[in-house]
């Protein structure tokens, strides 16, 4: 869904489709070709989305691991002994 919102809709809304046989009512765009202005408007957003998609799984995995580890540390009472726990069952 993120790709659809960022890539497809952004390209469709900013495209200049006046010379096409089917415009779907979208003729107000300023970008008629892939050039410097296209990359400044649309390309930066696409690259940012790709970088976010590349980095977010790592951030998410690190966050879940940190929360799990913090829960273990709090359960142990900030003691380093892994068998010192307040839980009485699994």
Please count the helical segments.
Answer: 2
Distance between the termini: 39 Å
Overall SS class: mainly alpha
What share of residues is helical?
55-70%
Poorly predicted runs: none
Q: How many strands appear in the DSSP assignment? A: 0
Topology as H/E string? Answer: HH
What characterizes the major β-sheet?
none
Strand content: under 5%
Integer average pLDDT: 80
Shape: rod-shaped
Number of structurally distinct domains = 1
Rg, Cα atoms, Å: 25 Å
Could you give the topology of this structure?
Elements: H1 2-14, H2 36-75
Summed up:
The chain has 90 residues and is mainly α. The chain has one domain (2-75).
Describe this structure in words.
With 90 residues, this protein is mainly alpha-helical. The chain has one domain. It is 59% helix and 0% strand. It contains 2 helices and no strands. The protein has helices at 2-14, 36-75. α1 packs antiparallel against α2 (36-75). The longest helix is centred in the middle third of the chain and has 40 residues, at 36-75. The mean pLDDT is 80.
Supply database-style keywords.
0% strand, mainly alpha, rod-shaped, 90 residues, 2 helices
């Amino acid at each position: 869904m993120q790709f659809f919102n960022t890539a497809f809709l952004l390209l469709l809304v900013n495209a200049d489709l006046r010379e096409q046989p089917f415009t779907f009512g979208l003729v107000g765009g300023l970008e008629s070709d892939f050039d410097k202005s296209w990359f400044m408007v649309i390309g930066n957003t696409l690259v940012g989305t790709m970088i976010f998609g590349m980095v977010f799984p790592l951030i998410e995995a690190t966050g879940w691991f940190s929360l799990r580890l913090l829960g273990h540390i709090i359960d142990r009472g900030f003691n380093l002994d892994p068998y010192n726990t307040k839980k009485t069952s699994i």
